[in-house]
Specification:
globular, 22% helix, 294 residues, 12% strand, alpha+beta
Length: 294
């Protein structure tokens, strides 16, 4: 009788995932680590971007103030005109360093929100764009951190100007008497030689998008704690300023009332009194251009 060969049975081995694959727990751990690293890195990147924008902003205002100084040198020491109002830069009676009025709508007049010619084309705007022959790049008039927009022709577009000029420099051709500038014990400087302390007098600054309109920035150093127009806060609660001596800086504000929440619908309420706002004396001093204040 033949003996039957035993049959070897193969038992199936349990499935093991390939050594290169992740388990679900491992994948979740990796995702968590990436999220933590991102949370640590993104603020640093945001600060780096903010700092870079601040450097570009200072470079822009420095170039523009150099152009402003060159204009005075070519005009027998007379500073560029600096009028205010909706028609500024449009007529001989409203001559201004830039033409036009910014808003959040169509812009008055002639689409000033988007019209770079009002900034640099003195031939087209002979009563405005006075710095155009010296600084031909309209990008210099716009802070890279300014994200404000307006509607023009049914299209939402970026506005072309972020800066305004100190109301104490330049001749104002159509100045209606007001409670904050007429009369003032501080010098209205129509010539460069009238500026007593160039290192202390700002010429240009970033103005808030819901405060800016014409190119004339109003300050009231005659009344304690009074703020008329508001500076921007594009650079971490700070604004770019340029001064008559040619230097530029980023100035940080310490009182939250100086930088209230933005409104993209209505313009900010201007010309208000903010007792104890520690930022206002600095702004008043450097609008008046004096070495000590009050």
């Amino acid at each position: 009788m033949k003996r039957l060969n035993s049959v070897t049975r193969k038992t199936s081995r349990p499935y093991r995932p390939d050594s290169g694959a992740f388990t679900l727990i491992e994948l979740l751990v990796v995702i968590a680590i990436i999220a933590i690293l991102a949370a640590m890195i993104l603020p640093a990147l945001a600060r780096a971007k903010q700092k870079t924008q601040g450097i570009y902003c200072m470079n822009n205002t420095k170039q523009m103030t150099l152009a402003w100084n060159m204009y005075a040198g070519d005009q027998n020491d007379n500073l560029a005109p600096n009028s205010d109002g909706g028609q500024c830069g449009q007529t001989a009676g409203t001559a201004a360093w830039v033409a036009g009025w910014l808003d959040f709508g169509t812009g008055q007049p002639a689409g000033a929100n988007t019209n770079v010619q009002m900034l640099v084309n003195h031939d087209a705007y002979p009563y405005g764009a006075y710095l155009g022959p010296y600084i031909k790049n309209p990008a210099a008039f716009h802070c890279p951190a300014d994200q404000s927009q307006s509607k023009f022709g049914g299209v939402t577009v970026a506005r072309v100007r972020s800066v305004s000029m100190n109301n104490f420099v330049g001749k104002s051709y159509d100045r209606t008497p007001s409670t904050w500038t007429v009369p003032s014990k501080y010098q209205q400087c129509q010539k460069y030689a009238q500026i007593k302390s160039p290192v202390d007098m700002f010429v240009l600054l970033d103005e808030r998008e819901d405060s800016i309109n014409d190119g004339w920035y109003a300050s009231d150093p005659d009344h304690p704690w009074q703020i008329v127009d508001y500076p921007a806060s594009y650079h971490g609660s700070a604004a770019g300023y340029s001064f008559a001596d040619g230097h530029s800086e980023i100035h940080k504000f310490r009182d939250g009332r100086t930088i209230p929440p933005l409104s993209y619908v209505n313009l900010l309420a201007l010309n208000v009194n903010l007792p104890g706002d520690v930022d206002i004396p600095w702004m008043q001093q450097h609008a008046a251009g004096v070495s000590s204040f009050p």
